Amino acid sequence: MELSVGGRKAYAYNAGRAPDSARPSVVFVHGAGLDHSFWGLQSRYFAYHGRNVLSLDLPGRGRSEGPPLPAIEAMADWVIALLDAARLQRASVIGKSMGSLVALECAARYPLRVERIALVGTAFPMRVSKAFLDAAKDNEPVAHDMHTIWGHAPQVPLGGNPNPGMWMYGDTLARLARLAPGVLYNDLKACNEYAGGGEAAAKVKCPALFILGQRDQMTSPKAGQAFAQLVPGSRVVQIAPSGHSMTAESPDATLDALIGFLRA
Amino acid sequence: MSGPKYPGFDTLALHAGQSPDPATGARAVPIYQTTSYVFRDSEHAASLFNMERAGHVYSRISNPTVAVLEERVAALEGGVGAIATASGQAALHLAIATLMGAGGHIVASAALYGGSHNLLGYTLRRFGVETTFVNPRDLVAWRGAIRPETQLLFGETLGNPGLDVLDLPKVSEIAHEAKVPLLVDSTFTTPYLMKPFELGADLLYHSATKFLSGHGTVIGGVLVDSGRFDWEASGKFPTLTAPYDGFHGMDFEEESGTRAFLLRTRREGLRDFGPCMAPMTAFQILQGIETLHLRMPRHVENTRKVVQFLVPHPMIEAVLYPELASHPDHALAKKLLPRGCGSVFSFNMKGGREAGRRFIEALRVFSHLANVGDAKSLVIHPATTTHYRMTEADLKKAGITTGTVRLSVGLEDPEDLIDDLSRGLHAAEKGR
């Protein structure tokens, strides 16, 4: 569905089902350089299981207009503005990687608007290597290679894709090829420079779930566990074979973890 | 953290798409000879049907063995994914049927496999899809044939049978200026000799019957999507960008972005037209692909020796092989096909149709049949077989004469191949 945030077109996938304020709502926030389709299976599931779904494209990618937002805090404000535009008072916010930091900030800054948060493939601080940042800044193809290779478990290029007939590396590279120059750098920089995670974690009052891939090469499960300890009362689910792209690598396990969390 | 490194082609050819079977530990790809897959419960069934979970429902739509082949070819080509089909022709039809309906228009190279020419020139016309054929070397003709209703440009990486080298960077540029994708038949080159997506193509397919399988044992096709074409921005593809009543009102581009084309092809094309690949077929093609990187260099090496033998022979009018300086696409081939121009090529004999008959019938190692890309060497006379439905004018456009003979050079001892051809040419010459 198309909405307007700050006078610009903002897009959120809702599986063709208009929001109904009587139903609980779930917002999905993608990671760096990605868009709403990253959550394809999971967002569709919840849209067909009694929830309003807003799987958004952050500004400057996919179908949302505008320059990319430079900081995690600004992205969180934009997500809440999107909820306003959709006339939804409260929602659970599920974010992956960069999106997980946005979800955390939403919960910390807008405790009355956020019911639950799920942080998928996360760490704090979310450091990005200088080589990766420099390559993204210069729009070098190797930045896409780094995103693709480090963004999946080591066995992915040789293993089987749960989604029949698809090649995960190729899909990630094709997504990145569609990005406007500078968007990936913007996102990686926002992750790298985000310093408010500790403070935000302490403010979280809602239930929080961490979903971590045991073979994650970008945000290690060890770092994710340490992050979870900063959020009071949070739970952790580890997905054994998965790397950083667990919605594609282990779509059912990721979905099952989210179903259990949102139903609890 | 070390720098990023992709697995090499040879490794992908052996491993991509499959890890050892989690149920049994089997190292080889298991043949899942089953039509359907037990649902865990009703909820699981519903979520599989509604695309909320990944998995298999019915082997016409997807099958675990076939999925390994699809993922492996996608990995070798650098695509987002692939769909295996009952034949190469089924792959071509599926691609077109996914992109357009009645009123659609295609601009295609005139130098095509006879079956493809037939589909485009006659059969699809009956369903309201028109094709304009152009000389593949004439870039002005490609551009000039595009109409407002054009939805696809199509050619073969190496044209059949004259081995016209498609100028992929330039033809894809023309396609993209018109906001339409370029589809190529990559059968003759395989991903070992050319990666069309790196040169600008958006979609490709193989007759996997040929080099991918490599042993003349199965019929199959594989359709691969680069995921790079922006269907939404084009505005010419309502099948991918408008809600589809045949699948819960799904807008495939909105749903899945880079995977829109393959999603509709699988969820509509395989579902409704049904040209799926059998798991046993997929297994056999996988066996072939595991040695593709070993076979293709030998195919090329043997071909070069055969070409060297034929060029100076007094019975030969012309050898149409792009590695020869006499071939009109020689310079382009050096640029686009640095590993070689494959092992299927044609030559024109003196003596016309009758000499061709005597030549073919005298051969003992080359088999006279309608196929290419086998480990065994093959021969055929296009004007009376693969291209026999074409008019004289169309034959001329495709660069075929009554004396044209097509060879598919196999993996035998090259000396034996040359001896065999020598015997055939001698027989042809004797009857003059």
Structural features, described:
- The complex is a heterodimer of chains A (264) and B (432).
- The mean pLDDT of chain A is 96.
- With 264 residues, chain A is an alpha/beta fold.
- Chain A is globular, with a radius of gyration of 17 Å.
- Chain A contains eleven helices and eight strands.
- An eight-stranded mixed β-sheet of chain A has the order 1-2-4-3-5-6-7-8, sandwiched between helices.
- With 432 residues, chain B is α/β, with parallel strands linked by helices.
- Chain B is globular, with a radius of gyration of 22 Å.
- Chain B starts with 8 loop residues before the first helix and ends with a helix.
- Chains A and B meet through helix 1, helix 5, helix 6 and helix 11 of A and helix 1, helix 3, strand 1 and helix 11 of B.
**Quaternary arrangement of the chains shown?**
heterodimer
Largest interface between protein chains, with number of residues from each side = A-B, 44 and 56 residues
Shape of chain B: globular
Strand element count of chain A: 8
Strand order of the largest sheet of chain A: 1-2-4-3-5-6-7-8
* Rg over alpha carbons of chain A: 17 Å
Blueprint of the fold:
The complex is a heterodimer of chains A (264) and B (432).
Chain A: E1 2-5, E2 8-13, E3 25-29, H1 40-47, E4 52-56, H2 72-85, E5 91-96, H3 98-109, E6 114-120, H4 130-137, H5 141-150, H6 168-177, H7 183-193, H8 197-203, E7 208-213, H9 221-228, E8 235-239, H10 246-249, H11 251-263
Parallel strand pairs in A: 3-4, 3-5, 5-6, 6-7, 7-8
Antiparallel strand pairs in A: 1-2, 2-4
Chain B: H1 9-15, H2 42-49, H3 64-77, E1 81-85, H4 88-99, E2 105-109, H5 114-126, E3 130-134, H6 139-145, E4 150-156, H7 168-177, E5 182-185, H8 190-193, E6 203-207, E7 221-225, H9 231-234, H10 238-241, H11 252-256, H12 260-273, H13 279-289, H14 292-310, E8 316-320, H15 330-336, E9 344-349, H16 352-362, E10 367-368, E11 378-380, H17 392-397, E12 404-408, H18 414-430
Parallel strand pairs in B: 2-3, 2-4, 4-5, 5-6, 10-11
Antiparallel strand pairs in B: 1-7, 6-7, 8-9, 9-12, 11-12
Helix pairs in contact in B: 1-3, 3-13, 4-12, 14-18, 16-18
